[in-house]
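User: Hey, my collaborator sent me this sequence without any context and asked if I could get a structure. I don't really work with proteins. Can you help?
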Amino acid sequence: MPFQTSGLHHVTAIGGDPRRNADFYLRALGLRLVKTTVNFDDPGTYHLYYGDESGRPGTLLTFFPWPDAPTGRRGTGQATTTAFSVPAPSIGWWRDHLTAAGVDVGPVVERDGENVLTFSDPDGLELALVAHPQGDPRSPWDNGHVPAEHAIRGLHSVTLSVTREDATAGMLTEDLGLRLAGEEGDRFRFAAGEGGPGATVDVLVTPDAPRGLVAAGTVHHVAWRAPDEPTQAAWRDELLGRGVGVTSIMDRQYFRSIYFREPGGTLLEIATDEPGFQIDEPLLELGRALKLPPWLEPHREQIEAVLPKLDVPAENDLERA
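Assistant: No problem. I've predicted the 3D structure and written it out in structure-token form, which is a compact way to encode the shape of the chain:
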């Protein structure tokens, strides 16, 4: 395979009430809302992007929050756990912090030499905080809700649940350029490059689990990084040549995207690192205003009329943090 991803770009999930969603990710988890826009295919709902200070690839969890969305079901054919990276000494702090916020957290467990704390967001999306023993060099988003020394550094990994691993493993290694980095029971770890936080996917074999249902509280797709548009276009041609069903290149304003499914059923994306989130608002004000693509701008008044107002804390603006 001539193309290799450098790691995760973002994870996109389905949420319920957008105000509850923003409150949890901004205040309980201390992420920054780096872009407030809409689902380009359904502009009657938001598309909310949470990440670090500038929304760098590898730090992003995004949501399509539908207030009346039915509850989904975790199962095979899905990314069933989204994990964030935190400093090793901070797991205990996070357990106490989340408990105080009313979140039902599990015990801290050790897996692959890392401490893992698992919990769910208000819609039931399964999340984890992972402390990598060698640390994570990425800078945190320094805000008023989570002290910088404990703050999330970015995505750590995702877990794909499958009924069998062979075909999924083949796509991860042959089409995304990942390598098998470890195996423990029914869990297989794959890594991009040197691996570590932001460059890892676990494949969990659960043959007796039900098939997942994508709705509120589940992951819609997992995106992997491509450095630029020419690389993405060549990558798409390579995938098509290998018989993979791939979409056309789609303009997502802040990156370009192609989509395809891995054999186990999870929807994957290859997204470009460019152009980023500062193309339509300055770094200091990311996420504060509703941003629409040019083709939806003429309908702004109608779109704003149906979207609920979000309570975005002042600390989301750098100049007020």
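In plain terms: The mean pLDDT is 95. You can pass these tokens on to your collaborator as they are.
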